[in-house]
Amino acid sequence: MQITFLGTGTSSGIPMVACDCAVCASANPKNTRLRSSVLLEKDGQSLLIDASADFRAQALRHRIRDLTAVLITHIHADHIFGLDEMRRYNQIYRKKIPVFLSAVFDREIREVMRYLYETPKQIGGGVSALDNRVLKPLEPLNIAGLTVTALPLKHGLLEIFGYRADNFAYLTDCSFIPEETFTALKGVDAVALDALRATPHPTHFSLAEAVAAAKRIGARETYFTHIAHNLEHEATNQTLPPHMQLAYDGLIINV
Ligand SMILES: [Zn+2]
Ligand SMILES: [Zn+2]
Ligand SMILES: [Zn+2]
What we know:
This protein is of the alpha/beta class. It has one domain (2-245): 4-Layer Sandwich (Metallo-beta-lactamase, Chain A), CATH 3.60.15.10. 22% of the residues lie in helices and 28% in strands. It has a seven-stranded mixed β-sheet with strand order 6-5-4-3-2-1-14. A seven-stranded mixed β-sheet has the order 7-8-9-10-11-12-13. Strand 12 (221-225), helix 8 (233-237) and strand 13 (244-246) form a beta-alpha-beta unit. The structure holds zinc ion (3 copies). One zinc ion binds at residues 16, 19, 21, 23-24, 229. One zinc ion (ZN) binds at residues 11, 76, 78-79, 173, 226.
């Protein structure tokens, strides 16, 4: 399986609007971070985890011609507003895009993006045609040729999903990993894990918390993502233990 980090930034993206800090002003492209998302590809099928608010730019940059399905971790705007761009694939392939998510987020997204799910009042414009499918936690399912398991995570008070797909795990936007999820992560080769910044935050792992969780997961390689402008890429990487690094936009790994 090939994994492409389409975006590794926190909800604001980096550079942040109207910020002149050293990271936002950095000339190093690894400090430029679109909103977080990964693309998993195997045997000609492709699975997108989160349709970020920057999906259009990401699809153009990486020439994403089709998606087999989309997994949604939670319905904060940075993770779902790219669903509007699915309409292009609907037009080309004349099919709905399957979107997998929790039962709670299935209900809520129909309010947040109501125009995608209601019968149009007039012809024209065109909105994405999505086929929502509810996932139960910890029940493996074959999606796009991968064995996918939804993993319970806490994002502050919010209960969201991380995902394991074969031996890769994507755990964004989390501040707590339940025991059952640690158990389900046994044997993963590579993990992408939320690490917002150095100082603690109520709804995201700090870098130190993420390093501690990564040690417990024990993957061969760990990549931190959903990064704020407080973490400079090269300087931060020099402080990390072996086999742990900040991910960056465009990073491609094979698992
Ligand atoms: Zn987020
Ligand atoms: Zn900044
Ligand atoms: Zn979030």
